[in-house]
Design goal:
The protein has 398 residues and is an alpha+beta fold. It has helices at residues 21-42, 63-69, 73-76, 87-100, 146-168, 187-193, 197-200, 214-226, 270-283, 295-303, 320-327, 329-346, 370-386, and strands spanning 2-4, 10-13, 48-52, 58-61, 109-114, 120-130, 137-144, 172-176, 182-185, 229-237, 243-253, 261-268, 311-317, 352-357, 360-365, 392-397.
Length: 398
Amino acid sequence: YPLHNVRGRIAGLLGVARDISDELGLQSLMRRRADEARVWFDLNPLPVVEFAGSELRILNANPAALQCYGHDRESMLQLHLPDLFAEDEAARLHAYLRKEGRALPPGSVAWKHRKASGELFAVVTDMGNLPHEAVPSHLMLVRDVSGEQAAQVALDEAEARFEDLIESGLAMVWMHDPEGRLLWVNAAMADALGHERENMAGRLLSDFVADEAHEHWDDYLDRTRSLKRDTGLLHFVSRNGERRVWQYQFVCYPDADPAPYVLGSAQDVTLRHRYELRVREQNRRDPLTGFHTRRYLEAFAMQTTVDQEWGCVVVDVDYFRQVNASEGRARGDAVLRDLAHLLKNHAGSDDELVRLGGDEFAVVLPHATLDGVRELADRLAVASHDGMPAVFSLGWAV
């Protein structure tokens, strides 16, 4: 303001100031809090209810809360907090408040809440104080978990059915990591191998595979690393030393959380496997002499290596038809059995004896030398000259 002298002229200026820094800071803080409240209350996708701390009267509710409970704003503001709870839960809330003497349960709590229609639904709430308010009030943040609970119940029921199926079934079931270390086995598998379940977890599945069948185990493990699913045979040995054959199927879960694993199931096919081997062996054995049939030669040819040296002596009974014609087939069969016995006595322990058909035989020497095959042929030639049990022709080669 200007200052005037007695003549009315301006002689100076008078200034008066007031520090409003705190007022401006407070205004800024209030604007920021209003923005924050708008974000976490009005724009919050989760229901938020504000209520008085003493009589639990509802003071405010965001749009998500109105939609969740099915009330309009006017009717919502006529309610008290327990009105949003199921009747038994409202009693629980009052009992807690009387017991604890405070308005808020600590942390997240599971409740059953009630909509305007009377429908009950499961929620988890977080409650807290609303700061910087003239009237003490509190907030309740609500999350509807009814869908999660229904999904969890369905999942629990499915898991229970799965466990019942696995534990009550006859199949052996296991889980192991990509290296073959067991994560879990069912009771049927533990019983079949004669071990305790808790003692099997953490061990390699190969520990229970028969020593002579470890090449099959290596093949199995390779396939679990390259195939999504597969089936085959594994040879196990039980705790008492008994050998068992299991037909298995596995499914790999390489992307499982928290770690990849392989789920396998198997049936014990030991008896069937032995029967099939016996039938296969019978098909490859001549019933009269017990020698291999000529089918053996096909398998032998597939097993030989390029640099393997092997020999063969072929024997053919002379005038065998006349023996059958003059002395009968029974005598002919006896001659063949005696000749088979002779060949077996002269052959080495590693040699294989084959009846090619009729009166023709072969002695196969898988690992032979020229001298060894010649010596065998010479011994058989001497026996042929003696005519016991019959005269036969022979030839040999390496």
